[in-house]
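Morning F.,

Quick status update on the modeling queue. The single chain you submitted on Monday has been processed. Sequence for confirmation:
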Amino acid sequence: MDFVLSGMAACGACLFTNPLEVVKTRMQLQGELKSRGTYQVYYRNVFHAFYTIGKVDGIAGLQKGLVPGLVYQFVMNGVRLGSYAIIESSGYIQTDGKVSAVKSIVAGAIAGIVGAYMGSPIYLVKTHLQSQATSSIAVGHQHKHRGMLHALADIHKQHGIMGLWRGSSAAIPRVSVGSAAQLYTFSASKELVTNLQLFPEGSWLISLTSGMVSSVAVVSAMTPFDVVSTRLYNQPVDHLGKGELYRGFSDCFSKTLKKEGFTGLYKGLGASYFRLGPHTIVSLLLWDELRKFYKKHS
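C-alpha cells below.
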C-alpha cells in the first residue's frame, strides 16, 4: 500500500506540473552545445515559453507527454517514496530518536536509484514526446513518435530491449541526488517544525512547510543532473543505438560545461523550480496525508 499511495500522490502532482515539465525540457535543449549568442532563442524565460508553446502548438502542446508522465510518476515515485516510507517506518533513518542526516541521505539515494532504473524507459519516451514541437519553435533532436506505445514499440524494434534503458546512466545520478536531498530535507524539516510546535500536532501545514523547504534543496542539487539527463535521453542515435552527441553522463557534463559554461548546467533553472518546486510540495504533502489517512482507517 505504501507503493500505491506514493504513486497516487506523485500522479496527483503531475497533473498540475506537466506543462512546466514541457517548458523545462524545451529550455534545457535550447542552444544545446552552442555558445551564448550563437543560436536562435525561441524561449526567453518561463513565461515567454508558456506563451510561445501555447500560441504555436496550442494548449494541448503544454500537456505533451502527459500519459508517460503519469506512468513514470506512478512507477518511479511509487517505488522511490514507497521504499523510503518502509525504511522510515522501520526506524532506520533515526539515531537516538532523531533523524540521522547520513542514514536519511543514504536511504533516499538508494530508493531513488531503484525508482529511476525501473522508470527509465518511460522517462525516455516522455522526454522525446515533450521535446517534439512545430518546426518554427523546435529545439533539440526531433523524434517522430505518435504516442507512448508507438514510441516504446519503435525504440524496441530499432534498438532492442536495452535501447529502452538508454540514458539511464544519467537518470540514476539525477534521481539519487534529487531523492537524497528531497527526502532528507523533508524528514529533517518535518522533525524541526514539529519540535518547534509551530502548528497543531498532525496538521497538514507541517507537511506543507517541510515540502517548501525540501523544494528549494532538491532544485538546487538536481538541476545540473537534470540538464544532462534531458540531453542524453533526447539525443539522436546511430543504427547501433549509440548516442551521436554524447558517449555518456560524464561526456555530456563536460561538453556542456566546455561549450556553454557553468550556466549551461543551470539552463531552465526558473522552469525547473516552477516545475520541481510545486511538484515536490504537492507530492510530499499528498504522500504524507495519504499515509496518515490510511493508517487512521486501516
